[in-house]
Amino acid sequence: MAELRFYALREVFNRQLVDDHTITSKISVIFAEKVFDKRKMEKYLTREAYQAVTAAMEEGTSINRKMAGQVATGMKAWAMDNGATHYTHWFHPLTDATAEKHDSFVDFGDTGGLVENFSGELLAQQEPDASSFPSGGIRNTFEARGYTAWDVSSPAFIVGHTLCIPTVFVSYTGEALDYKTPLLKALAAIDKAAVDVCQYFDKNVTKVIATLGWEQEYFLIDEALYNARPDLILTDRTLMGHQSSKDQQLDDHYFSSIPERVNAYMREFETEAYRLGIPVKTRHNEVAPNQFECAPIFEEANLANDHNQLIMDLMKRIARRHHFRVLFHEKPFAGINGSGKHNNWSLKTNTGVNLFSPGKNPKGNMMFLSFLVCVLKAVYENQDLIRASIMSAGNSHRLGANEAPPAIFSVFLGKQISSTLDEIVEKVTSRKMTPDEKTELKLGIGKIPEILLDNTDRNRTSPFAFTGNRFEFRAVGSSANCAAAMIILNTVVADQLTKFKKAADTLIRKGTSKDEAIFQVQKKFILESENIRFEGDGYSDDWKKEAKKRGLSNVTSVTESISHYLAPSAKKVLIGNNIFTERELEARVGVEYEKFTKKIQIEARVLGDIAINHIVPTAIRYQTILLENVKGLREVFETKVYEELSHARKDLIMEVSHHISQIKQKVHDMIEARKVANKIAGEKEKAIAYEKNVRPFFDDIRYHIDKLELIVDNDIWPLPKYRELLFTR
Ligand code: ADP
Ligand code: MG
Predict the structure, then answer these.
(1) Domains and CATH numbers, the chain
(2) Protein residue closest via CA to atom 17 of ligand 1
(3) Could you tell me if 222 and 11 are in contact, meaning their C-beta atoms sit under 8 angstroms apart?
(4) pTM of the model
(5) Which terminus, N or C, of the chain has the lesser number of Cβ atoms within 10 Å?
(6) 20-44, pLDDT tens digit by residue?
C-alpha cells in the first residue's frame, strides 16, 4: 500500500503541464456562443415564437403549444448547427448536484430511416423516471414518477454534444422535488413584495429582481495523490492526517501568484465558462495552501445559480484533463481553512436602481432604508431558518470553527449606516415630527451616499455583512446549491417587505402622511431588530456571551438546525408565502435528515475501513520492526548495554500498541453505535443518533491515527500526508 503513496508522489513530480487550450479569440467573441440566447433566438425563431419566448422570459407569460413547437424546431436547428446530437432536461434534484438524462434527437421517419426530431412537447416537459432521487417519500406514496418542465427564464445551452434545457423537477402530483421550483417561487414573492414597497417612492418600478454574485472556493489536489486517499475518493474530505508543520501560518498563499499548472486549469475552465455565458471575473489563491477562488459578475439569482451549478460541473470535469481533482467540500482538511461560497445578494428594479445602494437624494435613501430595515428584521426573526438553509454535514465543520462565520447570526452594517439608523430612532418619536425635525432627518439621510463612498470597513467575521451596495451572506457552504440559501433569504425578506407595507398603509389610512408613516415603520423595525446588529469580532468569545444575553441563538448541531425548517414561525413564512406546501416542506426536511445520516454513515464506514485495513496493519508492521530490533539488540549486546539501548524502543512499542488498541476498540464501538442507529425508523431520530452517538468517534479515532502518523516509519506509511497533499503541485 505504501507503494501507492510513493508511486503517486513520483507521478506528481513528473507531471507535464497540460496544454491549456488557450483562449485564442477575445472573450467578448466567444462569450455565450453555446447559449441559445436572444441573439440566436432572433436568428433561429419565427418572429412570433421569438416574441412569445421573450415575453415569457421577461414577464413570465406562458407559451402555448403551437409556439412551443416552433421554439423547439428553432432550438434544435441551432443545437444541430453547433454539433449537438442529444438533448437533456437539466435539473437540480435535492442532492447538491445537477442531473441529466440524455436522449438523442433521432426518431424513425416516415420512410423508416432515422431523422432528427424535437417537438414542443419534448422541449416543454419530460418524464425522466428519476425515481432514485431523494423525494422525502413524496413519490413513493404515489407513482415513482417525476416530471421536468422547461424553465424559460434560464436559456438552453450546449455542453459537449448535448443540448441542455434548464428545467424544474416536480412529482406526478405537482410537488417540487428540486431546488429550482421553490427558488422561482421565492423570487416571484420578493418581486411582488419589493415592487409594492417601491411604489411608495417611484411609480415606474414594476419589476424587481434579486441578484446573486457567488464566490466559489475550492481546493485542488493532484489526482495521483487523491487516488491514494480512499477518504478523499469516497467522502471528499480527509478523515485523518496530521497537520503539516507548515500550512497557512505565514499567509503566503493568499493572493500570491497562481501556480502555472493551476493557472492553465483555470484558464481552460474559464474559457468553457465564457462559452456557456458565465461571466467569470475573478480568480485568486485563497488562504489555505492549494485553495483557490473563482467569482463571476453577478446576475439575476436564478440564472446565477444555474451558472454556479454548471461551473462546478465544468470545474470537476476539466480538472481531470489537468490531472487535478477539485474538492468542493467545506472542510477537506482539519486545522486549515475550509471553503465557503459567499452569496452576494441584492435587489434591482426595472428602472435600474440597486435597492441596497443608497440613493442620490433623501427620497432614494428613504427607499434604500426601507429595504435595509426589512432585511434586518427578516434576519433577526428568522435566524434559525436562515441557518437551517445553509447547515449540512460538511458545513457544520466550518460554522463556529473560528475561521468561518459563527453559528450565531448577526448583521454587520458598518458605522455610517448604523448611525443613520440610530438617528432615525432618535428623531422619529411617536408624536408628529415638526417640519424642522423632518427636514433635519431628511438632510441626514440624504448624506448617506457620500459617506458610504469611503466606508471601507469590512468585517470578515460576520455571517451576513452589508458591503456598501449589497449583502454578503458568507455562511453558505462551498458544495451547496445556492438555491437553498436564496429560497429562504428572498422569502423572509419578501415577508418583511409585505409586513412593512401593511404597517405603513395602516398608518396612512389613519391619516398619517406617507413620509411620516414610512419613518414610523422604519423606526419600529429598527428597534425591533436591534439585537441582530453587531459590528465587532464574530469569532470572539465575548460575542458568544453577548449574543446569548441578546437572546440570539447559537446552534452548531446539524440535526437541531434542520429541525428549525418545521418550527411554527418558519412554516408560517414558508407556507404562508406559498413557497412550499406543508407536505413539500416536510419532505424536504426528511431529505435533509437522510442526506446527513448517509454522509455520516459513509464517513464512519470509510474511517473504520482505513483504520483497520490500512493503519492498524501498518502500525503492526512497524511494531514488528521494532520488536525485531529489540531482539537483535539482546542477541548482540550484554545485558547492561542491552537494557540501556532497548529502553526507548520498548517505549515506542508500548506507544504504538496503545494507539493500535485504542483504534481497534473505538472502531468496534463506533460500529456498534451504527448498528443501533441503523435500527431507528424515523429519519429525524436516526440522524440525531448518527450525530450524537456515531460522529463523536471520528475525532477520537483520528486522534490515535494522527499520533501513529507521527511515529511510524515514513517509508511504510500508506496515505499521502497533509504536506504532500497541500504542497505538491
Ligand atoms: P469581495 O471583496 O467580497 O471579494 P468582490 O468585489 O470580489 O468582493 O465581489 C464579490 C461578488 O459580489 C462578485 O461576484 C460581484 O459580482 C458581486 N456583486 C457586486 N455587486 C452585486 C450586486 N448588486 N448584487 C449581487 N452581487 C453583487
Ligand atoms: Mg466576498
Answers:
(1) 31-178 (3.10.20.70), 188-580 (3.30.590.10), 592-725 (1.20.120.1560)
(2) 213
(3) yes
(4) 0.95
(5) N
(6) 665 667 889 999 999 999 999 999 9
